[in-house]
Design brief:
With 231 residues, the protein is α/β, with parallel strands linked by helices. The chain has 7 helices and 11 strands. It has a 9-stranded mixed beta sheet, with helices on both faces. It has a two-stranded antiparallel sheet with strand order 5-8.
């Protein structure tokens, strides 16, 4: 099986559905946890790279001192043509690593809960049209790297998904989240959500109501990424 290196930034933002979908599609998943002291390698040790989300900002090297190594890892992966997927924080780190910029906080404010993005590109991962996703971010990619192509947008943030080269993608949104993960995130951020004008119970309810569509869209994207890796 093809080996995928996964960088996980915090305990609560793990692989989610990817833990089932990716092995079923032929990928051998190997997470590392730098917040527990795991070493971030200088180059991808395997056939692909996935960098997950996290609550820290993409420039917050003091709170997360492994971030420079992750940005270097992403830059090297893109240069070497290693299939790469950045999710939320991972997408922001990918953009910075390749010459883009991230706005912190984003000009449109926080985007939390069930959302829809308009897929405008057609490539190995995407088919044009509306796509249901889970959003959970305060920052946004304000300028893409020079060679990047926008894959999906919405009214809140233009750069919701992008591709760099032939085999690296950044997703500002989440496709891997389970309903249990959303419940946990809402519990952790309950006070902040209320302060930002969100109704925590509605966030969970909206995701629950759209769960079948979210799972179908996420599974399709994960399977397509696995095909890039194994193909």
């Amino acid at each position: 099986m093809a080996r995928v290196l996964v960088v996980q930034h915090v305990a609560g933002e793990g692989l989610g559905h990817f833990a089932d979908w990716l092995p079923a599609a032929g990928l051998d998943v190997h997470p590392i946890h730098p917040y527990l002291g795991h070493r971030v390698p200088a180059v991808v040790e395997g056939d692909a790279l996935i960098v997950l989300g996290g609550p820290m900002a993409a420039y917050d090297d003091t709170a997360a001192p492994w971030l420079p190594a992750v940005r270097d890892l992403l830059a090297g992966a893109v240069e070497d043509g290693v299939p790469t997927l950045g999710v939320c924080l991972g997408a922001q780190l990918l953009a910075i690593a390749c010459g883009g910029t991230v706005e912190s906080p984003g000009s449109s404010g926080p985007e939390i809960g069930l959302a829809t993005v308009d897929v405008t590109a057609e490539d190995e991962l995407f088919t044009p049209g509306p796509m249901p996703v889970v959003a959970w971010h305060h920052d946004g990619v304000s300028a893409l790297p020079p060679e990047a192509v926008v894959c999906a947008s919405n009214a809140a943030y233009v750069n919701q998904a992008f591709r760099i080269g032939e085999s690296a993608w950044g997703l500002q949104f989440h496709v891997e989240t389970t309903l249990d993960m959303i419940r946990d995130w809402v519990g952790i951020a309950h006070a902040d959500l209320l302060a930002d004008g969100f109704a925590p119970a509605d966030i969970v309810g909206d995701v629950r109501a759209a769960e079948s569509a979210l799972v179908a869209a996420g599974h399709r994207l994960a399977t397509r990424f696995a095909a890039v890796v194994t193909g």
